[in-house]
Every structure is written in structure tokens, then in C-alpha cells.
């Protein structure tokens, strides 16, 4: 199964926040794990909002070198296919009265356009949207 990791999964893994998540990630083939360039932006935003300059510098280096190297060849951008899928998903969400935040919608659209399963712990925001979703925190 090929997977698109949500920003929260990458952030939790970087912080070693959950042993079960670490085990789950180790059980996956690295070549099956993909990341959106939008997650790079969300992570960078979080880094820039940190109060401590030393921590910002350390995390910038991790983002610019380690994380991007880890996902080399598996960083996915917003293509015209992704944009069209985003339009479909967000229109459907709006019609159903369950609006979809822009970044979440673009991440889901990226997964759908590339035939990937979206991996997140925030399933309440993205379930029942017609995209395959997996929560590694509830996966045995």
C-alpha cells in the first residue's frame, strides 16, 4: 500500500511522540511513504512560530536537509490533477455541509490524484470524503 503522510504524522514521528506510531512507521517500506510539499510548508510555519532561536535553527536544518532527503523522489506537489480533485472534494464537502479546510483538502486531493492512502490521526476532519484514510494510532 502506498501512503501519503499527513503533517501531524511527520511531526509526531520527529518528536518521538508515540511508540506505537514509531513501530507502525518502521513496519512500512520507506518507498511506500510519500509527503506533500504542503506539509513542508506547514512544518516550516510551525518552526517559524517557535520562541527559541536555537530550536528554530535546529529544526530548520532538519527540515531543509534531513526530512527532504528522507523523502527524496517522494515529495508530491500540487499539480493540475491535484487542483481539479481539490475542486471536486471541496465542492462535495460544501454541498454536504461539512466544509473542508484548504490544506486538508489539498492533502486529500493529492492522495486521491496519486492513488495513495492518506495517513492521519485527524480522521474526523477527513473521513467520509471518498479518499482512503488510515489512522496508524488505531491500527493494530
Question: Care to describe what's here?
Answer:
By secondary structure, the chain is α/β, with parallel strands linked by helices. It has a 5-stranded parallel sheet with strand order 3-2-1-4-5. The protein has a single domain, classed as 5'-nuclease (Rossmann fold), CATH 3.40.50. Helix 3 (37-48) packs antiparallel against helix 4 (53-70). It starts with a strand and ends in a 6-residue tail after the last strand. Helix 7 (123-126) links the parallel strand 4 (117-119) and strand 5. Helices cover 56% and strands 10% of the residues.
Report a brief summary of the structure.
Helices cover 56% and strands 10% of the residues.
Q: Tell me the overall shape.
A: globular
The end-to-end span amounts to 16 Å
Low-pLDDT runs:
none
Q: State the strand order across the main sheet.
A: 3-2-1-4-5
Order of helices and strands: EHHEHHEHHEHE
Sheet with the most strands? 5 strands, parallel
| Share in helix | 55-70%
Average residue pLDDT? 93
Estimate what percentage of residues fall within beta strands: 5-15%
CATH class: Alpha Beta
Number of strands: 5
Output the structural class.
alpha/beta
Task: Assign the CATH architecture.
Answer: 3-Layer(aba) Sandwich
Radius of gyration: 15 Å
Please tell me the total number of domains.
1
Examine the coordinates and then state which fold CATH places here, giving the name of the CATH topology: Rossmann fold
The CATH superfamily is identified as 5'-nuclease
Question: Helical segment tally?
Answer: 7
Amino acid at each position: 500500500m502506498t501512503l501519503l503522510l499527513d503533517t501531524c504524522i511527520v511531526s509526531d514521528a520527529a518528536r518521538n511522540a508515540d511508540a506505537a506510531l514509531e513501530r507502525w512507521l518502521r513496519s512500512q517500506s520507506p518507498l511506500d511513504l510519500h509527503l506533500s510539499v504542503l506539509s513542508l510548508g506547514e512544518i516550516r510555519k510551525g518552526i517559524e512560530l517557535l520562541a527559541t532561536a536555537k530550536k528554530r535553527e535546529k529544526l530548520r536544518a532538519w527540515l531543509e536537509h534531513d526530512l527532504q532527503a528522507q523523502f527524496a523522489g517522494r515529495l508530491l506537489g500540487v499539480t493540475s490533477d491535484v487542483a481539479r480533485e481539490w475542486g471536486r472534494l471541496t465542492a462535495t464537502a460544501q454541498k454536504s455541509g461539512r466544509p473542508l479546510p484548504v490544506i486538508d483538502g489539498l492533502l486529500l486531493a493529492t492522495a486521491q490524484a496519486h492513488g495513495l492512502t492518506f495517513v492521519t490521526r485527524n480522521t474526523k476532519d477527513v473521513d467520509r470524503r471518498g479518499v482512503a484514510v488510515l489512522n496508524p494510532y488505531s491500527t493494530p
